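User: My advisor, Dr. K., asked me to get a structural model of this assembly before our group meeting. I'm new to this, so sorry if the format is off. These are the inputs:
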Amino acid sequence: MTTSPRWLRTAPGRTPRIEYGADYNPEQWPRDVWDDDVRAMRTAGVTIVSLAIFSWGRLEPAEGEYDFGWLDEVMDLLHAGGIAVDLATATASPPPWLTAKHPEILPVDHEGRTIWPGSRQHWRPTSPAFREHALRLVRQMAGRYGDHPALAAWHVSNELGCHNAYDYSDDAAAAFRVWLRRRYGELAALNAAWGTAFWSQHYSDWSQILPPRRAATHPNPTQQLDFTRFSSDALKDYLCAERDVLRELTPDVPVTTNFMIMGRLRPLDYADWAAEVDFVANDHYVQRTSRPFDELSFSANLTGNVAGGRPWFLMEHSTSAVNWQPINVPKKPGELERDSLTHVAHGADAVCFFQWRQSRAGAEKYHSAMVPHAGEDSAVFRRVTELGETLRRLAPVAGAGRTPARAAVLVDWDSAWAAELDSHPTNRLRYQQEALDWYSAFLDLGVRADVVPVRTGLSRYDLVVAPILYVVPEALRRRLEAYVRGGGHLVTTYFSGNVDEHDHLWPGAHPGALRDLLGIRIEEFAPLPDGDQVVLDNGSVGTLWTDMMEVADAGVEVLARYADGSPAVTRKAYTAGSAAYVSTRLGPDGLAPLLGDLLRRAGVESELPPGLRGRVELVVRGDFRFYVNRTDEPVDLTGVPGEALHGSAERLEPRGVGVLRGPA
Amino acid sequence: MTTSPRWLRTAPGRTPRIEYGADYNPEQWPRDVWDDDVRAMRTAGVTIVSLAIFSWGRLEPAEGEYDFGWLDEVMDLLHAGGIAVDLATATASPPPWLTAKHPEILPVDHEGRTIWPGSRQHWRPTSPAFREHALRLVRQMAGRYGDHPALAAWHVSNELGCHNAYDYSDDAAAAFRVWLRRRYGELAALNAAWGTAFWSQHYSDWSQILPPRRAATHPNPTQQLDFTRFSSDALKDYLCAERDVLRELTPDVPVTTNFMIMGRLRPLDYADWAAEVDFVANDHYVQRTSRPFDELSFSANLTGNVAGGRPWFLMEHSTSAVNWQPINVPKKPGELERDSLTHVAHGADAVCFFQWRQSRAGAEKYHSAMVPHAGEDSAVFRRVTELGETLRRLAPVAGAGRTPARAAVLVDWDSAWAAELDSHPTNRLRYQQEALDWYSAFLDLGVRADVVPVRTGLSRYDLVVAPILYVVPEALRRRLEAYVRGGGHLVTTYFSGNVDEHDHLWPGAHPGALRDLLGIRIEEFAPLPDGDQVVLDNGSVGTLWTDMMEVADAGVEVLARYADGSPAVTRKAYTAGSAAYVSTRLGPDGLAPLLGDLLRRAGVESELPPGLRGRVELVVRGDFRFYVNRTDEPVDLTGVPGEALHGSAERLEPRGVGVLRGPA
Amino acid sequence: MTTSPRWLRTAPGRTPRIEYGADYNPEQWPRDVWDDDVRAMRTAGVTIVSLAIFSWGRLEPAEGEYDFGWLDEVMDLLHAGGIAVDLATATASPPPWLTAKHPEILPVDHEGRTIWPGSRQHWRPTSPAFREHALRLVRQMAGRYGDHPALAAWHVSNELGCHNAYDYSDDAAAAFRVWLRRRYGELAALNAAWGTAFWSQHYSDWSQILPPRRAATHPNPTQQLDFTRFSSDALKDYLCAERDVLRELTPDVPVTTNFMIMGRLRPLDYADWAAEVDFVANDHYVQRTSRPFDELSFSANLTGNVAGGRPWFLMEHSTSAVNWQPINVPKKPGELERDSLTHVAHGADAVCFFQWRQSRAGAEKYHSAMVPHAGEDSAVFRRVTELGETLRRLAPVAGAGRTPARAAVLVDWDSAWAAELDSHPTNRLRYQQEALDWYSAFLDLGVRADVVPVRTGLSRYDLVVAPILYVVPEALRRRLEAYVRGGGHLVTTYFSGNVDEHDHLWPGAHPGALRDLLGIRIEEFAPLPDGDQVVLDNGSVGTLWTDMMEVADAGVEVLARYADGSPAVTRKAYTAGSAAYVSTRLGPDGLAPLLGDLLRRAGVESELPPGLRGRVELVVRGDFRFYVNRTDEPVDLTGVPGEALHGSAERLEPRGVGVLRGPA
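Assistant: The format is fine. Below is the predicted structure of the whole assembly, which you can bring to the meeting.
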């Protein structure tokens, strides 16, 4: 990554701190509320707000007519209150006049249906008309506010791709062709890569190529995979277009946009995007899963590594319930702080919410905020104010680098996209769930692990888990081999190593690219029907997948077998390193003992006292050690070294977090 | 309501009676069947039929060419047989020549898909082309049959909105804009009401406004709510257009159309529509729910109150199975009579079916009828004939007003529409189910309750239940306050009182408009995940919803608490009245004891002997008391006063109905 | 059927054999693989391959420009290797240049959505543009390869209708009108047949008629049924168009196309299509059902009878897992052979697979093949080679006619289509499942039964089961009556005999056309809700359906009754024959004892020793008796007459097949 080491533009001499704030939408409120807002922000400890995210309609009420007066006033008010501004370019949602004039801006979905206005983000990333109007606004914003003393950073658009990641319009088709020309050069190369000899799909002219729109049955898989890559790039390209205007006009103001690393891997390859922003920002919302806290930690961990270990900005999370899940449950006491500080532990130097004041109208009025409907005399606002105090106390942490772990979980967008395509052995496979399961096993064992993009250098890690590493181009195959031969311990799973970058199978038995490295040979995949399970001879239970596998190398040890005696888990030992393979889905409970064994052999041990392992997540930022109570019970910290910067050094409350300073 | 007190136009001096009949579709049968029809109608006791409902294609086989001869003959035949006619305007379904010539008549759904011909009701209420052709036919019908002696009433179209309630076409967009201009006057008012400062939705010209078509995510809630209101009004407007033609040409013939009050609240605000017809007609079909009889009684009760207590016309129900549910089960013995007489009990002075003779072809050939496929020698026709005799015996009831109860359940279309919008705390909330649960609790307690539209005067009721009264504009807030301060006992539930008529939250803690009246304060809503439940300290079990509530007034008594001691059910006592709040879904079994307690405090008692409560529904029309056996067991009526007009005064058969005359 | 008795064109004097092979797609592989292919084919015993199925894009890379060189080479290579070719016309999937130039070729689905290119078979059967280009290619193929010595047969297109069976485009509308004119002659006849008096659907001009596109509610049932018939005919018409070109240019080369008789009855009436090909070919894939083997046997059996008892060609099945089910499980040892030989038992004289060599790219790369990814050193290829040897051993069977059974199960496409239309008593009815249940009962009893199209002559059968024979035109009614009066034993079920060919109910009580023949009278259908069941007095359990039935004839015996004493199963005895009726779904376990009783009365007995009944399927081709082990346990064959042509005469392996020669 080549990002420049930039953070917020702040007043000279300002001491580092953990920033605190929210999206602020003053245009939804009468003028007299604004003063009250600034007063209450100071009460809560707010240091920064994101402004003007959905203000296009208000700032440019008709084409080319601008109304900046109200925003000038808000900027001044905030500055007078000592509150910095992460100022949006205001392009997130086009106003009605624009889509009425240019309906060709509206996206078209996979079924050919137009995405109409009425909500937000109803624009094609590839639309020339949209880009023209949006960039003109960006230019206005930069010109007007570039020198404003409150301006700390630019916030490009908002959650790019949240709803418009895939567009199948004619604009998209045209841009897809340009992207493909750049990727393949010659049409023959595209025909080869897409395997168009199959099903008579040979292209004789670039103009014949289309997005994978609704088809009679399974569309070409490489066409699908390339369209996914293109779609990520199309939004990245738009991000760069706004950024370039901003850099031209305000070269000293850092630029960011809020990623959405959460839940399941989104359509956008943020590991690739990170190089385009001055610092990484992320939005994260807890969702109802079997292990919601582990997912939060996983996402924060990955965000920190996408950010290259540098400080990042938690741009949005929630003080309590959201409004967009089927059923939206409020946060329990302690959850707000635990969620926030887990992000800080993984490198966030800013903790922000959507939004400052809960709306009275619109589609997000039931989304919690820093100031709820009930006002300042409320449990939520009291917790918000306490959190502000806590973050002030944690100021010394700001800027501290994350201390890498000795183990890592690899995340690969290409594999996540390709492994879940249709026409596969099973459509039940879930890439991110397998990755999360391994991460949960690390947490259960009390062993720190970094969640890192596949392009990360592996040599720093003693053990690397690469779940469902389905796409293995030659270069990656070599990297993995070099890692193992260099003493690294690689662990991978079912449906890994099968295909190259074009989703073509490597020749011969599975798992093609990794067959020799792992010393195994798979003739057929044997996915399991729903409800079926297999019991291994070590007592663990597999679901989802099995392989018809045999050992093909004398150096392979079978760590677990299926009931018929065939190998289920294998490990090939090298001079120093090793390469292990797990052929079924074991889930966190089945993975934990297996991973424990593999870590022991790799010489990696927990840094936690035995009594804390599994109950507490440990994260280290330089001198600071974060102890996060994963449970709803209190935890005794006796024996843990260091002095408390936050919380007690003796005890963690249920869902509590302690931050200790000093040597381990 | 300002409806004129009109009923059927009948021959002078005819004695009042309960009308009996069906939809009659002679055009599906050869001429020789018609004579047989009239003969069999007389056997069955039929007094009236609805005619020509789907006859457009037959009456106007090509544009402007009319073929009335066959209908003339049917009208004459019926009149000769002493059977009156509720004559349709025949516009319910446009013929193929019309939609072939004017495809712009076809509705467009939310996804942009055209609704093609091939079934029925494939027309836009707002289509100028449709209206032109339809009204021309109405004019023809009125001119030709206005003076026919068989004509007793006009039947406008059929089940307006059954399939075409929502249309997202460009015609609809244009009409929506007209409706909005009328509602808001200034665009600024619309922008304020819709909260368009949110998500950059500010309109700078009326022409930019669209129906809430498929969007990227949650559309503007007020736009959705207004579009629902508009859609109800658009169909009402069409109803009025036909009615106005009829009133112009045949001022002495009453006009009706068949509403669809059943199952769940339909898209149409019938409380609002009722003022536009000369008498209310309704269609009702029993559906497979947990308590189908209770729903039937609820709907009949509501229909009677929508009709303002005046006689109404049961235009359609079924003699046995229908054909449009996934699985269509025939009626058990007794159900046909019980269903019919429950409608009569609640004020129906006409009992009609779809349809007279079961079709041999078409999409409704498996829908039961008065004359089934098996013919007159069949159980169904024998029951039909018995019912005809019963209705003759009940002639004295005709015209008797419904006797109001001392308690009521409020029904509010605005709340039903708005409470179930998306982007809410839970998408599991069902307005009508909560209302039905309360009604079932009344039935279980043996206490009569009226189901009344929210605009009904409340002062006549000692106790009013307002379930999920989500939308509370200022005027309603005042009415409710006046009701309680005037000695009324108000009971309301979770998700009530939160928003005004624009779906904007009332300021401050929930439940905004009702906070002070109830003396409570809610900081956060806490909906329950599927499968979760809470046990209250009174032993009842809540699902779906809970509130994080506190008592905010010394006059509030906590009637039940959650496990953590926080209040779940409260009651604030006033000098004479009270205001109670139930914060979770208790279901009929949990509501019955609670409601029993609230009724006792309000001084409302059951009018039934203890042994009949819950087993029998009592309905009163003046001197006539209907005892409806809700169970499949016989019920002993001993001790009940009055003489039997129908059934035994001593005993109700399983599913049986007794009608007794005389003082209670 | 009038098919000429043609089979493959082969070298003179070649001995009859069971052909063996696969689809072969050399264009997906480099040239050097082709030699290896031919070598390995000889190893495996391959005698024939299907070639060029998806080669249009390769053969005609731009309009009118042909590249046949590679195919010439492949044809020569195969011929040199002694391998015959079933040569495709290569029209199955149009190349991108064609759909780019003529987007009006693309089908339109029921919702109005275009089916875009990107997969395969994205063409309208009724498209003039498609037909012009496709037939031009057919002409080229015939001209170039008609005399090639490798050419054994023409393979028209591929799996016609697999994805494009229903097309709702304007081309389809135009062709539908032509088809309707041919069927009805006068518009009045269509109006009568479609019952357009219902819901104002009267047509005054042919041009008003449309396919049953997305409508407001249930479309006209006869319109739906006719559109289904038309859709089958439209594809048949296209098949004939290709065939006619081939017959014109290469009159001595037989023409076939691969049907898809499997799983559930497809949209195409293959009993009608069979007359148009020189020999029948079929594709069959095992699917995950409760009794997958029974379905395979049922489909093979039906295919044999669709082929009129003459040899047929198993064009595709799989060596192991497929890729298009949600979860694709590999075949267990023995399944490959059992599947293949069961088809041979039912008359297949060719056993082929999709495909020869498993693809490295494209949407079917995870579909198994004769040469899997793992190569020749694999379990799959070893089994494939063993099967090749087995088929060589079975050469004497080739050409042997299937020996008819004494019982039959009737299959009627019209009833299958019409019985599952919407707006019926229940939407849970599944035509083919009921037919399969009866077939399973025959297998469980060890009694052979033929699965035959309804047009088959019945007189050869002692007992005929006609499950859900819903559509009974007058001619069929007479045939069934003649069959019974001639001594035949007819068994039919719920929802039979109700309607004529226009889906109009026969007059009077149900089951209209069969009421008198069965001697029963049904007033109402009483389908059962999900989860409900009824217990008959013989202990068997009914689901899905019941009838409100009474006996209407003294000659009727009630074989089983419902709990209320009403008849559930009846049998009317005639002088020699009988007519029985089963009014509920009993499933295989409930049907077996009942069917056993009915067979006993009809004098039909199992040809298997008692110990084998139910465990083994017996199929007879002349002198050859196939014993197929339906179970996963070994079966003792001791006492079975004949000498083993394949397998042991004493014992069947689990899932094993024995072929014995000699008198029974």
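One thing worth pointing out at the meeting: Chain B touches chain A through 56 residues (CB under 8 Å).

User: Perfect, thanks a lot.
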